[in-house]
Every structure is written in structure tokens, then in C-alpha cells.
Amino acid sequence: MDLDLSADEIAFRDDLRAFIAANLPEEWRGVSDVSSRVDDAVTRQWLDRLAPQGYLTAGWPAAFGGVPKWTPMQQHIFRSELARARAPEVPMMEFGMVAPLVILFGSDEQKARFLPRILSGEDRWGQGFSEPQAGSDLASLRTSARREGDEYVVNGQKIWTTFAHKATMLFCLVRTDPDAARPHAGISMLFIPTDTPGITIRPIWTIEGAHHFNEVFFDDVRVPVSARLGEENKGWDYARALLSFERFGAAALQTTQEILTQIGDLIDADDPLRLDLAALEAEAAALEMYELRTFDGARAGWRLVSNPRS
């Protein structure tokens, strides 16, 4: 495995470090350390500084401010340097999940509508997947979308919807063909504004007294067919692609390593907790090696993410 950075990757890292040093005020560092207490105003200001440099739009169409697609190693460098600086987190939901999904599978109209609003912060997104009876077995979801002319009528419930109370949009898996031969078939994905009549959002409070989870109820919610992503009854393919994007960034490995380092600075050398901390650091290091091995494989032509279109 070759862990040496190329000349281009070193230049990318050095430019990023210089940008962070010049543009990240000290008081902005650490505002994302606790996900339920993220400072939205500071995060927005940070995103407004990242955007003109192309740091948010790698791989986007040029018409929407896109720059050339990053290599997996460049993505790793970007996450690592921001984590090391304790910069406000770039929202995974919008930039790591919805934007790539729209770019891959969305219509021209959907790209023109959603990509600029993601970049500007006008839209914030929530994920409408899990249901009370469909968590790990997501294909058993029951939320229905009945076709009536140019609209779907949606009825059902989603649960554990993170930050739905702040979202302007939801991407939802719904059942459009209840008679499909397989449970994975007959599912479509809809983009639904949260202010659509018939939507009710209720908080789920965690044991720490925080509110970031929600229940979302749909009562005869009317959604235009144009709000469907891709083909009808192909939503499971799009969900698989989206979950592959989510897995790539959801572990937040670099942030975890930075937090472990901070904890280590607070623990005395002879504290028994040092053993537990060392075990966690070893697990994180092993995961990092696995990640770097995968990136090295990408250089050699491995295919990292399956694309249902191919």
C-alpha cells in the first residue's frame, strides 16, 4: 500500500491548510463538537467562505459552480484537515448525500432547483426512510404514495428523522406499487417540502434532553409527480446509491480521532482510562488504515461505489 501523497495531493493539502489558517476564526472552532448543539449561524458563515473556493462543489456540474471531481484521497485530506482544525462540519445530508444523488439521477429541472438552494443554504434536508415497523428491514416500509393524475397522495409515518424540524425538504421512500412481487420493488423516492399541507412533525427528545430526532406524519399529502427522483418503483436503487454516499462520510473518522486526542490531553498519564483510550485509538487507526488502503486501491482502478445506472 502506497501512503505517500502525490505532488497534486500535497499541493491540495497545503492550499487547504493556508485557507483554514486565514479564514477560520478561533471562536468558530469546535461549534460542531456536539451534533445536537451545532451553531447553525456560524456553520452558514463558514460554508459561505468555503463555497467560492470550490470546496463544496467538487464533481458538481460546471453550470452550478462545480469544480473537477476530487479523488478519494483528496476527500480524505479535506475531512482530515477540517477535523484537525475543529472547523464547523460541512452538512453531510445536503452536500454528502442529496447533492450527489440529484447530480446522478435528478432531472435537469431538479438540478436547477435544488443544487443552488443547497449551496446557498435556502434548503435543508431530512431523510424520510425509517418507520416504526421498518428500521433495519427498510424494504418493509408502509408509507404509501397513490398516483392520482399528476400527483401522488402520500399517507404514512416516518420516525427518527434527524433535524426534520429544521428541514425545508425531505427525501422520502414511499411505496408506489403495493402489489410488487418483491418488497424491494414498488418503492419510489419523492422530494417533499416540509410545509406541504398534511405534514406533521413531532419531536423525539433524547435522554440528554436534546431535540434532533423527529416523527413525521403524512395525512393525504399531495406531491407532484415531478417531485419523484428518477423512475417510478426504482427508489430502492437510488436509496442504495445514497446509502453508499452516507457510509463514506458517516463514520466521521477524522473527527473521532481529533476528539480522542483532545481527551488524551485531559487524562493523567497513570489514569486507568488510558488503557480504554488506547484501545479506541487503536481501533480508529485500524479503520484509517482500511480507509487508506481503499483509497490506494482506487488509484489502481478499484471501483468504490456501485452505480445502479451502470
Could you please describe the fold and organization of this structure?
The chain is of the alpha+beta class. The protein folds into 2 domains: 7-122, Orthogonal Bundle (Butyryl-Coa Dehydrogenase, subunit A, domain 1), CATH 1.10.540; 125-238, Butyryl-CoA Dehydrogenase, subunit A, domain 2. It is built from 8 helices and 7 strands. The chain has helices at 7-23, 40-50, 72-84, 92-105, 108-120, 235-250, 253-266, 273-299, and strands at 125-128, 144-148, 151-158, 169-175, 187-193, 199-205, 211-224. It has a 4-stranded antiparallel sheet with strand order 2-3-7-6, with no helix packed on it. Strand 6 and strand 7 form a beta hairpin.
Structure summarized in a few sentences:
40% of the residues lie in helices and 17% in strands. It is α+β, with helices and mostly antiparallel strands and 310 residues long.
Biggest beta-sheet profile: 4 strands, antiparallel
Our Rg estimate from Cα atoms comes to 21 Å
CATH architecture descriptor of the largest domain = Orthogonal Bundle
**Separation, N- and C-terminal Cα atoms:** 28 Å
- Give the H and E element order: HHHHHEEEEEEEHHH
Q: Strand-residue fraction?
A: 15-25%
Number of helices: 8
Number of domains in the coordinates? 2
- Structural class call reads alpha+beta
Q: What is the class of the largest domain in the CATH system?
A: Mainly Alpha
CATH topology-level fold name of the largest domain:
Butyryl-Coa Dehydrogenase, subunit A, domain 1
Query: Order of strands side by side in the largest beta sheet?
Result: 2-3-7-6
Uncertain residue ranges? 306-310
